[in-house]
Amino acid sequence: MIGRLNHVAIAVPDLEAASAQYRDTLGAKVGSPQDEPDHGVTVVFIELPNTKIELLHPLGEGSPITAFLEKNPSGGIHHVCYEVEDILAARDKLQATGARVLGDGNPKIGAHGKPVLFLHPKDFTGTLVELEQV
Question: How many domains are contained in the chain?
Answer without folding.
Answer: 1
